[in-house]
Amino acid sequence: MKAIEVKPDIYWVGAIDWAIRDFHGYITPNGTTYNNYLIIDDQVTLLDTVKHDFAEITIENIKSLTDPSKIKNIVINHIENDHVTSIDKIMELTPEATVYITQKGRQGLDRFFDTSNWDIKIVKTGDTLNIGKRTLLFIETPMLHWPDSMMTYIKEEKILISQDAFGQHLASSARFDDDFIQSASKVELEDSVIDYYANILMPFGQLIKNKIADIEKLGLEIEIIAPDHGIIWRKDPSKVINMYLDMADGKADLRVVILYDTMWQSTEQMTLPIMQGIKEEGIDVKVIKLRATPLSIAVKEFWRSRGCLVGSPTLNNNLFPTVGGLLTYLRGLRPKNRIVAAFGSYGWGGGAVKQIYEELKHMGLETVEPGIQVKYKPSPEDKQQCYDFGREFAIKVREYHKNFE
Ligand code: FEO
Questions:
Q1: In the prediction, which pLDDT does 242 show?
Q2: Which domains does the chain show, CATH number per domain?
Q3: Residue 164 catalytic?
Q4: Ligand 1 in contact with 82 (CB < 6 A)?
Q5: With a threshold of 0.85, does the pTM exceed it?
Q6: Is pLDDT of 195 > 90?
Q7: Helical residues (DSSP H) of 186-265, grouped into ranges
Q8: Binding site membership of 164 for ligand 1 (Cβ less than 6 Å)
Q9: How far does the centroid of ligand 1 lie from the alpha carbon of residue 330, in Å?
C-alpha cells in the first residue's frame, strides 16, 4: 500500500501484514499493520519504523514522498521488534539523522543495534522538538506497555502518535476509522480494540487512567489519534479514549463465558446444562472449548464477560494442559473485576477444580465456591445439579455486576 496523507505533509508510510496469524504467540486472525509516519517539514521527521520484514515497503513509501537521505529526525516511541527493527536500514540511508528516544528506549536500542555512530538524543515528558512549522511534544508512557514507551504529540496539527496504545491488530485497506466503518463495521473495529486491550494492556488499567488524566492536564486538544497498529482515529478519537477508560474501570457485559476443555467428553457434557441454567436466568452465555480456540480469543471473551466458568478434567492429578495454559496466561494479565467459578470431571483422584480455584484466588478474582465436580460421566442427576449450578452462578453474576453499573 502506498503512502497515505493523514494531514497535509503528514503521511502514513507503514506496511500491512495481511498474513500474520501468530504475533509473538498472540493469535491475530485479522493480521495487523505496522504504522509509522513521515512529516515533510523544514526538518523531515520520521515517527517510528516497522518490523524488519517490511523495511523495504516503508522505505519505498518514504521514497515516494522524499529522498530518505533528507530525514533529519527519527523518533522512536517504542523499541519492541515490530516497530524498531528496520531502523538500521533507514539509518543506512540517512546516517546523519538524529534519533529521539527515551532513556529506557536507548538501553534497548543499544542492545539491538550497533549504535556507536548514531546521533541519539534522550527525551522525556515535556521536551519539545521544533522541526519548522511544527513542534513535537514528547510524553513518556512507561509500562504502556514497555518501560521505554512514549507518545509524540504534533502540536500544530493536534495529532497524537500514540504508539501501541489505542491500536488494533487489524489488517485493512482502510486507514481511518470512518473509512473502515463504511467498508466493514463499527462492531468489528470495536471488537479489535477490545481484543488488543485484553491481550496487551489488561494489566495496565490504572496506568492508562493516570496517563489519560495527565494528557488532559496538559490541555492537549486531540483531533487525530494515530497508533502504530491498525486504524487511525480521525472521525471520533474520543470514542477509543472512552473505550479505554471504560475498560480500565473494569467495564464488562452482563454475560458469562464458559472456558473449558475435555478428555472423554465428561466435562464437555457438563457445559450444556450449566449453559442452559445460566441462559434460563436471563444471562447471555458463550461456550469456548480451549483446545479448539486460540488463547487470545478465549481471553478476549473472558474480558468482555462479567462472569467466567473454567472447566477441566483431572489428568494425572493435574489440570488439563490447555486449562493450565489459560490460567497461566490470565495470571500474567492481572485481570480484575470479574466473578468466577470452576467445574470439572475426574476418574479416581480428582484435583483439577481445586487447582483452578487456587489459581483464580491467586489472581484476586471474586470466586463462587465450591464449584461442581462429576465422577467419570455426568448422570441425569449430575446434569440437574449442573443446571442448578449454572442458575446459581448466573444470579451471583447479576448481583456482582451491579457494583459496576
Ligand atoms: Fe506493537 Fe509493543 O509493540
A1: 96
A2: 4-248 (3.60.15.10), 256-404 (3.40.50.360)
A3: yes
A4: yes
A5: yes
A6: yes
A7: 186-196, 205-217, 237-248
A8: yes
A9: 19
